[in-house]
Amino acid sequence: MQVIEAYMWLLQAQNPDVFCATTTMPVIALLPNRSTRLLWSGEDVSEVTKLFIPMNTSGTHWTLLVRPCTHITFKLISL
Known about the structure:
Layout: H1 2-14, E1 18-20, H2 24-30, H3 37-40, E2 50-55, E3 63-68
């Protein structure tokens, strides 16, 4: 996981138009009664054209979710 985090950091440092989520974001998002909003707090996403989210749903293989965007809107849905 540290290799993935380091690569995401490097990717974001070299590409100011890319925002990379941490590896913990998808895990937290799938837990009941949890929110990812603190993971995004303090981040400037005004110039972001791509959102990268590393995911490891199987526990053995990493996948990179790439979402092109002209603007990012976060919605909090509480059930």
